[in-house]
Amino acid sequence: MRDLSVDVRRLTRIYGQGRTAVKALDEVDLAVERGGFVAIMGPSGSGKSTLLNMVGGLDRPTAGEVYVGGVEVTAQDESQLYLIRRQRVGFVFQAFHLSPLLNALDNVLLPALPVGINRARRERATHLLERVGMGARLKRRPAELSAGEQQRVALARALIMDPDLVLADEPTGNLDTRTGTEVIRLVEDLNSELGKTFLIVTHDPRIARRCHRIIYLRDGRLCTAAEAGLGELA
After folding, report:
1. What is the CATH number of domain 36-59+87-233?
2. Are the beta carbons of 200 and 190 closer than 8 angstroms?
3. Which of 62, 91, 198, 216 has an alpha carbon 20 to 30 Å from 169's alpha carbon atom?
């Protein structure tokens, strides 16, 4: 039996009703094995971020099922979804979403607040920041950090609760080419070292080529690279 980290079955998401309805996802089937390093590509509006939000339990589908680590996310109530997001899934966003009032260390510790911040978690946060090259900037606030450094802090924060799955939505979108390449290399190293599953939405072919697998979407459906207008990656 395959050891799946993500199992998506006939996933459909429709926004609106009647003539104004938009089918963001159209019966998508997707299986990602544990430890996978996967890119999701496609034109704007193809459903990439919607798919990521469904997998992470940030939005609910109109129809279909999502399993993360064997647990059916789509069957959970809000309290259980909260626990799944906190314990099983880490998130990295294009805009970083760091608290401007907190330093790097405290930003990494934010997801641990509901369960308490003890010495072990503080040591883990420090270790993660050191691992992503931010050991000398633990006490710096976001305004004192470059965009690349902020994304490194966000990556450490995504890993603080030791999740099985990390979802990254355009993690290099606000970074210059050199910095974006450095960050994705770091993500690649962490995938190899920690065995975490990474699902990465990206428009950048250079980023996608570093992933072990590329999934293409167009109009809410899985498709080939050529159908997505990305034939050079086929």
Report:
1. 3.40.50.300
2. no
3. 62
